[in-house]
């Protein structure tokens, strides 16, 4: 198994994971305040990124989609725009 060299902290995958975590963190932290206070979010994000990079399903999906991290970031931006558009149509 080949592993990508360690990516800089501002890698597109890291940014994507951090953005997705931020969407749910506040509600989760309100439900689990003691755990939230004990968790280092930076380390949590780093661990999630490392697990994704090591995950054979993730790597296979990236190959099938012909994506690298830069293209993944662009795809994530498109999805975020679509999510915002849907949220405007179906406000919660």
Please characterize this protein's 3D structure.
It is a single chain. With 92 residues, this protein is mainly alpha-helical. Helices cover 76% and strands 0% of the residues. The chain has helices at 12-31, 33-38, 41-54, 56-64, 69-89. Helix 1 crosses helix 5. The longest helix is centred in the C-terminal third of the chain and has 21 residues, at 69-89. The radius of gyration is 15 Å and the shape is flat. Mean pLDDT is 84; it is low at 1-6.
Number of strands: 0
Straight-line N-to-C gap: 44 Å
- What does the radius of gyration come to? 15 Å
Q: So what's the overall shape?
A: flat
Beta-strand percentage? under 5%
Give the rounded overall mean pLDDT.
Answer: 84
Which parts are unreliable, with pLDDT below 50 for 5 consecutive residues or more? Answer: 1-6
Helical content stands at over 70%
How is the biggest beta sheet arranged? none
Q: Tally the helices.
A: 5
Structural classification: mainly alpha
Q: Please write the string of helix (H) and strand (E) elements.
A: HHHHH
């Amino acid at each position: 198994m080949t592993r990508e060299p360690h990516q800089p902290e501002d890698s597109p995958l890291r940014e994507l994971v951090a953005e997705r975590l931020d969407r749910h963190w506040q509600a989760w932290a309100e439900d689990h305040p003691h755990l939230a206070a004990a968790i280092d979010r930076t380390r949590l994000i780093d661990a999630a990124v490392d697990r994704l990079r090591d995950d054979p399903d993730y790597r296979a999906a990236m190959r099938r989609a012909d994506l690298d991290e830069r293209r993944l970031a662009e795809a994530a931006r498109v999805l975020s725009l679509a999510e915002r558009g849907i949220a405007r149509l179906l406000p919660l």
